[in-house]
Write a structure and sequence with these properties.
By secondary structure, this protein is of the alpha+beta class. It has one domain: NADH Oxidase (3-Layer(aba) Sandwich). The protein is about 50% helix and about 15% strand. It has a three-stranded antiparallel sheet with strand order 1-3-2, with helices on both faces. It binds flavin mononucleotide.
């Protein structure tokens, strides 16, 4: 399912980070605790839910964009947390998404976005590779 990449076998854990194509359906439940806590008022709650209900259904591109956006944030957060615990991670897009969905019985709304292996740094691991200079990756408008 990951094209023979040995790291998924060697790592103690491989996370399958999934996004959902139905984020708009879960939005009321996701926001309700913030309403209950007095952080969001009722009109904000209703406005956000209405906005998502108006824009997401019937717009597969937006649903998929949102799934990838949210899952990518989750993956990076996981990687930073793991690194903070002295662990090593490997992000992987080299896998068969249909095979993963089938074997792990994902629903039609769940998209496997990225795999993240997590384990203990091994002797001989590559050091961090050189990064691009800041001016190549950021533009102030
Ligand atoms: C989205 C994404 C997908 C990747 N997929 C794979 C993969 O399938 N297999 C792999 O060996 N490396 C993959 N990589 C590369 C490594 O995860 C890692 O980012 C790369 O080795 C850079 O390491 P560095 O942090 O030491 O610079 C991927 C990287 C990214 C950002």
């Amino acid at each position: 399912m990951s094209y023979g990449q040995q790291k998924v076998v060697d790592a103690p854990v491989t996370f399958i980070i999934c996004g959902t194509l139905a984020a708009h359906e879960g939005l009321p439940q996701a926001l309700q605790p913030s309403v209950d806590a007095g952080i969001l008022n009722q009109s904000m709650f209703e406005g956000w839910v209405a906005m998502a209900k108006g824009s997401h259904p019937g717009n597969p591109q937006l649903q998929r964009d949102e799934a990838f956006r949210s899952a990518s944030l989750a993956a990076m957060t996981l990687m930073l947390a793991a690194q903070g615990m002295g662990l090593s991670t490997g992000s992987m897009s080299g896998f068969d998404p249909l095979g993963v969905a089938r074997e792990f019985r994902l629903t039609a709304a769940e998209v496997p976005v990225i795999l993240v292996t997590v384990g203990y740094p091994a002797p001989g691991n590559w050091p961090q590779k050189p990064r691009k200079p800041l001016h190549e990756v950021i533009e102030f408008a």
